[in-house]
Specification:
The chain is mostly helical. Helices cover 68% and strands 3% of the residues. Helix 2 runs parallel beside helix 4, helix 5 packs across helix 6 and helix 6 crosses helix 8.
Length: 185
């Protein structure tokens, strides 16, 4: 089946049968999204929730902490809504399985259409939690940028035009006041 035939077939989700190549591409995209989400969590802890004065180094420094360490820091230093804490803990567990033990999962069998479909279902559940965590922490960062008066350059306008910022504002900004916040002193 050539590329255009496969593209045409994708227009109807019910007819879509992912291939091994589709599955591996999906895994690659999830890996990149996972890495980006880990960076976003680190950025939010280092910039948005930093106590004291922000320095230029805060904006460029990258943490070497593991995701588990970052989430542990959040749980220790921050007040986390129980539902969001559950999501974070599930995300860490799924992320560790995805990054370290994906190949060893019985459901990750790419030898048959049934095995591929099962893998897509499991990866889809991970993607859902990944997206929720990623968009929430991206929301914290973007809200911070909006309220701190960060200059709105071309990339900002592209995010506006694409609908991404309006989506964050509508669905994620309302959660920011209670998902994670500083503990009362």
């Amino acid at each position: 089946m050539n590329q255009s035939d496969r593209a045409g077939k994708r227009s109807d989700e019910h007819d879509f049968q992912p291939t091994v190549e589709d599955t591996l591409a999906f895994v690659g995209r999830l890996l990149i999204l996972t890495q980006t989400t880990e960076e976003r969590i680190s950025d939010v802890l280092r910039i948005v929730f930093k106590e004291g004065v922000l320095t230029a180094e805060d904006f460029v420094r990258k943490d070497r902490k593991t995701l588990g360490q970052l989430v542990g820091e959040i749980r220790l230093k921050m007040q986390v809504h129980p539902k969001f804490e559950g999501l974070l803990l599930a995300f860490v567990e799924q992320r560790n399985l995805f990054v370290h033990r994906l190949h060893a999962q019985k459901w990750f069998n790419l030898e048959s259409a049934e095995g591929i479909n099962t893998a897509w279902q499991a990866l889809g559940r991970y993607m859902f939690n990944l997206e929720q965590v990623s968009f929430t922490f991206t929301g914290y960062l973007m809200y911070f940028a909006e309220t701190a008066g960060v200059p709105k350059t071309g990339w900002w306008h592209k995010l506006e035009e694409s609908g991404f910022l309006p989506h964050l504002r509508e669905f994620y900004y309302p959660k920011l006041g209670y998902a994670v916040k500083r503990k009362a002193q």
